[in-house]
Write a structure and sequence with these properties.
27% of the residues lie in helices and 13% in strands. The chain has helices at residues 8-15, 63-70, 81-88, and strands at residues 32-35, 38-41, 46-49. A hairpin with a 4-residue loop joins strand 2 and strand 3.
Length: 89
């Protein structure tokens, strides 16, 4: 719930409920930035170049192979609604 409700304790008090929270993650979370074929860590440090992924007109940012490479849940942030719709296609 904490990811979707920022004021969970307030909501719990209003409902007369007890709330609990934890920082436990069963799987480590990794954040990367992909820009112009380069993979950067969340601090902007170069990690690697996307080698072996052919660009495709419908996937110029090579998101499909990156999602397959992740082998799990992936969240892609896009700057605009239009960009999000194009990415989803």
């Amino acid at each position: 719930m904490s990811a979707t409700i920022p004021n969970l304790p307030v909501l719990g008090k209003w409902l007369g409920a007890t709330t609990s929270s934890t920082d436990f993650r069963p799987v480590p979370l990794a954040n990367y930035i992909v820009c112009q074929g380069k993979v950067l860590d969340e601090d902007g440090n170069f990690v690697r170049t996307l080698e072996g992924y052919e660009s495709h007109p419908e996937d110029p940012d090579r998101l499909v192979p990156l999602c397959w490479e992740a082998q799990g849940g992936v969240i892609i942030f896009v700057a605009s609604k239009d960009g999000c719709e194009k990415c989803a296609v």
